[in-house]
Amino acid sequence: MAVCMLVGLLGAPTAQAWGCKGHQAVALIAEKHLTPEARQMVQKLLSENPIDPKLRRWCGNATTDLMVDASTWPDDVRNERKNGPWHYIDIPRGKHKGHLEGYCGNEGCVTRAIDKQRAILKDKSADSLKRAEAVRYLIHFVGDVHQPLHAITNADNGGNCVPVKYFHHEPLPNPLHPEREDYSPNLHQIWDTEIVERDMEISSPLRFADELDEKFHAESVAWEAARIHVDNWAWESHERAETAGYDGFPEKIGIEPDMLLKSCAENNHMGKRIFEKHLAVGEVYQGNAAKAAETGLAEAGVRLAMILNDAAKAAN
Fold first, then answer.
1. Rg over CA atoms, the chain
2. What are the φ and ψ backbone dihedral angles of 186, each rounded to 5 degrees?
3. Helices 110-122 & 230-240, crossing angle to 10 degrees?
4. What letters, b where the CB count within 10 A reaches 16 and e where it falls short, cover 86-98?
5. Nearest Cα to 74, choosing from 157, 143, 9, 125?
6. How far apart are CA 309 and CA 38, in angstroms?
7. 10: which residues sit within 8 A by CB, 6+ positions away?
8. Helix (H), strand (E) at residue 214
């Protein structure tokens, strides 16, 4: 699933699950649910192992909140560290529950990355820099696994090969490589950023986090009681992608043969075939998608706190 394939609607550098504001909201929700021990552990690790000030930060670095700042760092270093597959898991459409290892490629996937970084963070003998990076990865990856289009594929690179009209924005081909049949906006892109930021309206990430935490207060008790089950979280996101993502359109999008595309021109011209369906997102689709996205963001924040709280206990 080539999640960094296309530029965003407003010129974003690469596709990022939830975009800047969504990832920041997840971190802010998590902060509300941290134990004092976890808060101390996170602050100590992040403050003593700061992000390289020379690193180009796509979401800016004008924040004193270390968890908010950390939330987008994994996208800044993804190309340099060549760990793009850690941000998603390719579960084909039509699959339901079961072991996920078969969908996790040789280079890894988001569920395996979360487990690996949890182990590093919980090991108090591990290098301090590695544990700080584990915190940053976890803040980001728990957000990623709750973005529905990061837990599904339909031989379409996780929705990147599904052109859509987003309100008045018509899908346009990539002017540099029209032969690849990449279009923007596309399904993956709008779920990364546009759906959430349109739902936020004038809210800042801080205000949006407050609103979501209050809205899902009752549900958060059940999420915490269910404990940490990363694979289950991926399956939940997969189901949301099926219902609110693909099935949210009145036009039927069939289930494609399971394959990984090098470009959207493959799989019998996947990009062009879907472009000709003239899929369009308006108020009805946006409303349903926003409800699913809000739930995912709130879950991600609460569950991230659960992981950090658990690590703080193990590290004592």
1. 19
2. -140, 170
3. 150
4. bbbbbbbbebeee
5. 143
6. 5
7. 193
8. helix 205-215
Residue in 294, 24, 275 with CA at minimum distance from that of residue 170: 275
Q: CA of 198: how far to CAs of 17, 115, 184, 194, in Å? A: 15, 32, 17, 6
Look at the alpha carbons of 255, 256, 258, 264 in this order and tell me if their dihedral is positive or negative: negative
- What DSSP string describes 229-285? -HHHHHHHHHHHIIIIIITTSSS--PPPP----SSTTHHHHHHHHHHTT--EE-HHH
Check if the beta carbon of residue 72 is closer than 8 Å to that of residue 152.
Answer: no
Question: How many residues in the chain?
Answer: 316
Entry pTM: 0.94
Integer angstrom CA distances of residue 242 from 143, 149, 248, 254, 292: 19, 9, 8, 11, 11
Helix axes 205-215, 19-32, angle to 10 degrees: 50
Match 């709750």 to its residue by tokens: 146
pLDDT digits (tens, 9 = 90+) for 184-243: 999 999 999 999 999 999 899 999 999 999 999 999 999 999 999 999 999 999 999 999
CB-neighbour burial class of residue 18 (10 A; exposed 0-12, middle 13-18, buried 19+): buried
Collapsing DSSP to helix, strand or coil, 298 comes out as helix
Burial 159-189 (b: 16+ CB within 10 A, else e): bbbbbbebeeeebebbeeeeebbbbbbbbbb
CB atoms within 10 A of CB 58: 14
3-state secondary structure of 68: helix
Structure tokens given for 184 = 């923007």
Among 58, 68, 108, smallest CA distance to 88 is for: 108
For the stretch 10-63, pLDDT in tens is 333 345 689 999 999 999 999 999 999 999 999 999 999 999 999 999 998 768
Q: Check: CB of residue 11 under 8 Å from CB of residue 189.
A: no
Q: What is the rounded CA–CA span in Å between residue 240 and residue 291?
A: 10
52 DSSP 8-state letter: P
